[in-house]
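#structure-requests
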Amino acid sequence: MTPVLVRQHLPTAGPVPRTDPGARARDWSEIQERMLVPLYEAVYERLEVGPGTRLLGLGCGSGLALLMAASRGASLTGTEPGSPERLALARERLLPPAGEGHARGDVRLTGRSPGEAADAETPAYTLVTAFEPIGALAGDAEALAALLAAAVPLAERGAPVVLVGWGPPERCATWDVLRTVAGPDALTRGATGDGGTGRLRHTLRDDLEEAAQRAGLVLDGSGRVACPFGYAGVDSAVRGLLSTGLFDTAVAATDQDQVGKELAEALHPYRRRDGTVWMPNVFRYLIARTP
């Protein structure tokens, strides 16, 4: 299975939630990030990622998607300017210290933006991925379009660019939990001109297409992948979901312990007899091409 709701470093308004960034990044890496593995596999298979691929991963998190591409022989650049804690975990996975593991081929990780990370000797990328799903926070499509605009000049002409978004709310069990914990007042409908306040919003069907077109990309196909969120128990589910950042507004308004209790109650319909938690979700990916 992996991540993946929307990343905690998206711009927010109001007080910063009282959380431990290191613990949250570890929960992301150990619990939540695996939830999108079916999506990564579907994209890599469709685009035939392999030894000739030069991949630029935008918002690479703690590096699981990059690790999967490395296992196929791709050369990699991963950018993660929003979470130094997640970037540190990606380095542990992909760039182990000498004598403590095997470096995985041609890998470069940076906390800078794509343009700042490249230089005159950097070969043009043959694939760009933005696997962080949009469609849950106001302003996330605009933020993605800006990120893509900076990355597109670094790719070959006609190179595929992959964008990911949440599927329809009625096909994503996690949305029911969001509505229950965050409450209807936290939801907006589409772009509200708030500049990305971190408020939850309803997924729109054309989010991905609009983000791609704003970045000057040419649409070239799409697909849907079932990515259920499965957890060993309620405690694991609560920690994983909190690591996504979708509940930060609620945490800031109360505290993490209170939100954790509300999450545990909201997860009750998704508990199985053996104590595990299973939440069906669908994610959509769009393939666009650089002009």
